[in-house]
Amino acid sequence: MTSKILHRIPFHRAAVGEEEIAALAEVIRDGWLTMGARTVEFENQFAQYVGASHAVAVSSCTAALHLALEAIDLQPGDEVLVPTTTFTATAEVVVYLGGRPVLVDIDTETLNIDLRDAERRITSRTRAIIPVHLAGQPCDMAEIHQLAKRRNLRIVEDAAHALPASYRGQPVGSLSEFTAFSFYATKTLTTGEGGMITTENAAAAERMRMMRLHGIARDGWKRYSAEGTWYYEVQQAGYKYNFTDLQAALGLVQLKKCDAMRETRRRIAKRYTKAFQMVDSLELPRVLEDRESSWHLYILRLALDKLRIDRDQFIGALNQQGIGTSVHFIPLHLQPYYRREFGYRLGDLPNAESQYLRSISLPIYPTMREEEIEQVIAAVTSIAREAECPSSATQHAITPGI
Ligand SMILES: Cc1ncc(COP(=O)(O)O)c(C=O)c1O
Questions:
Q1: Structural domains for the chain
Q2: DSSP strand E in 144-232: where?
Q3: Ligand 1 pocket test target in 69, 137, 182, 193 with most atoms within 8 Å of CB
Q4: How far is residue 239 from each of residues 51, 211, 213, 329, 348, measured CA to CA in Å?
Q5: Per-residue confidence (pLDDT) for residue 400, from 0 to 100
Q6: In this structure, are residues 265 and 364 in contact, taking their beta carbons and an 8 Å threshold?
Q7: 97-144 residue pLDDT tens
Q8: Nearest Cα to 91, choosing from 116, 110, 108, 66?
Q9: What is the pLDDT of residues 29-75, one digit of tens each?
Q10: Nearest 5 degrees, angle CA 390-CA 394-CA 400?
Q11: Is residue 247 scored above 60 in pLDDT?
Q12: 252 class by beta-carbon count within 10 Å (0-12 exposed, 13-18 middle, 19+ buried)
């Protein structure tokens, strides 16, 4: 097909503007650029927003996950349950502490961790579970809490995609002992890079505050401020995971818009779903009734048995029509590192593999214009319709080497 590209629609465009610029300019004029009073203010407002007892701002969601596992004193050889359909950060933090990530298959409806498979993989070394709220749809937290109680596991939620989101009316961030958020450039609240860990455990909050800044006891960041003193004590070999007031300035502006931005994404998701439900070869994301998604991602799934083309060809055709897409995620057990270190093989986690082959993430962000939404709908619909083959079942396989 040689259709002319009307307008290139990127997979993501950050929703930042004049208000963020003004907030950053103010920090620069004030001259306090690293962690300070604005970070504390952002932590307080964030904790209130998600209904958490404590919020600790850090340099990334990866750092947040790492600090939570450190706070529960994860030991070398300990095992942690992690869904295979996630970004490598969720599992690599277990390795940082000498632990073993035990990869778990997913539920084919929600794409979230399959708890029956998780339970089968529990051993006497299993210490924790890291449920990932994929695309922003919360996992079944009631079931996860029951499992954790029954098998004595700690829970660290990976909510990199799930701000704001809720489960049975309660916001993600207040449901478990630990919840980690990401403010990476493509996320629903961005500070460029950054993360937050919320917790209900006061002692763990204190530990994480210390470990995010070199293991320096109590408000180490204040040592250069007017109320601080030059004297400090290093209690642990900590990390350099602190946030900055430049990030906090962005975060404070973004937090105010968080609900409105989610509403816009929800509207786009509705538009997509309304249009695509008329197309036989497309399967649409469904949010279960007892939860609300942040709609960070809109993951479309192809009914490959009804199509003459595979997922990669579909993505290629969208690209030709100017539409940027992504895939969430290549299952971790197929990545060279996890195969090599932990002996995973193709076929080990079949649901994740089959869903991976069918998945395409479409653009969904608050700055999408009406004509851009229309362009995505038109392109997806026409590519699917042109490639539909009513009768024959086509076989699709994972490319060797992935
Ligand atoms: C599910 C998930 N967890 C963790 C992360 C890591 O986030 P960060 O880049 O803030 O460390 C990501 C990043 O994309 C993610 O998608």
A1: 18-254 (3.40.640.10), 259-387 (3.90.1150.10)
A2: 154-158, 166-167, 170-171, 178-182, 195-199
A3: 182
A4: 27, 6, 6, 29, 35
A5: 52
A6: yes
A7: 999 999 999 999 999 999 999 999 999 999 999 999 999 999 999 999
A8: 66
A9: 999 999 999 999 999 999 999 999 999 999 999 999 999 999 999 99
A10: 155
A11: yes
A12: buried
pTM: 0.95
Is pLDDT of 1 > 50? no
85, 87, 190, best to mutate for ligand 1 pocket (most atoms within 8 Å of CB): 87
Tokens 């293991």, located at residue: 215
In this prediction, residue 2 carries a pLDDT of 46
**Structure token digits, residue 112:** 């979230």
What's phi and psi for 48, nearest 5 deg?
-65, -40
- The residue to which tokens 């079931």 are assigned: 143
| The residue to which tokens 């860990």 are assigned | 197
Indicate which residue's Cα is closest to atom 8 of ligand 1: 61
